[in-house]
Amino acid sequence: MQLYVRQHVAEVQQRLREPRHTMLAITGPRQVGKTTIVRQALEGAMAPVIYKSADGIVSGVHDWIGQAWQEARARAAQAQGSAVLVLDEIQKIPLWSDHVKRYWDEDSWHKRDIRVIILGSSVVLLNDGLRESLAGRFERLHVMPWSFAEMRDAFGWDLETYAIYGGYPGSAPYQPDRGRWMAYMQESIIEPVVLKDILQRKRIDKPYLLRDTLQAGARLSGREISYTKLMQELPDAGNTSTLVHYFEMFEESGLLCALPKYSRAVIQRRSSPKLQVFTNAIATASGTPWSAAMSPSDRGRCYESMVGAHLRSLIPGTSYTLSWWRDGINEVDFVINTPTSTIAIEVSTTPSHHRRGLEAFRKQFPDASTVLVGEGGIPFDVFLSTSIDALVS
Length: 393
What we know:
Largest sheet: 5 strands, parallel
Order of helices and strands: HEHEHEHEHEHHHHHHEEHHEEEHEHH
Number of domains: 2
Structural class: alpha/beta
Number of helices: 16
Strand content: 15-25%
Shape: globular
Helix content: 40-55%
């Protein structure tokens, strides 16, 4: 079966056609197809391609990057041109960013045309290295969970299947068997993030609390909840600062975030957040009772969470922010704020859904735009195929 080609493939190819300026760092949550994107982008490449993966490296790690780089230099010299060096799972190499900086700067000084692509399964550890030594030397390509259009075109999923099972392509073959699907999600997505991305990076005194917070937060996707109330549901939580720190790590890992309440004066990050998974697969795998037989109220929250996940996936790499808004009894599900515009978005799954929140928001912020998604507004499938540029224009 021919592999589905995401739009990122063309973006990587375009970067490689440009003159050498910066290396390309491909980042994003686990199991969204980052390595596949690189492989597809380099098929038929005119320049020599050197692909090296640090997965399974157990010895000689200190010269692993150097050996790979020397091979790329030799291949480029032989071709009397450029070469492409792909370093996969690079976060497994100790002090990897220092070594990459050294070789990249040497090539820049000697005007060698070595194109470098960096990627890895742990976005948390990869981000650490990028921040430490490589400022100004890389351009980031964000790869997020698959959209509805991608899962529909690649696997034939309808809207409700996507709303429940989200955007991890590796999980698609197991979706007809919910038990197998749940096992895949826990063993291939959630546990590796907790064990390899977070616990290996930071000292966490209460690992069980980290897991409980993730599970509870994912089940509450689409709901506002105060940190104080969440502490009551998590025995031994300690204080709200611990929970805020956990959600920051979950967000960087690409699982779950705490959306702040919108205010024109300032984003209220310490106010009661609205919890939002990056794709509904995380919520379903954490025990949220979303299924084909779910109640109308559960369907409403499921679809609201699906829209929120779509919006959250559009934000990386932009100057936009995503939040939510409430003033008394009036509430808006999501607010996108850009340097030049504000868009309030409400999600509707019933014909009787009121527009009171949108009207109140528009009254308080007259220059804002409002969008209703679902019943009585933009159909879900159309909205989920809308780019961020089209949405804010």
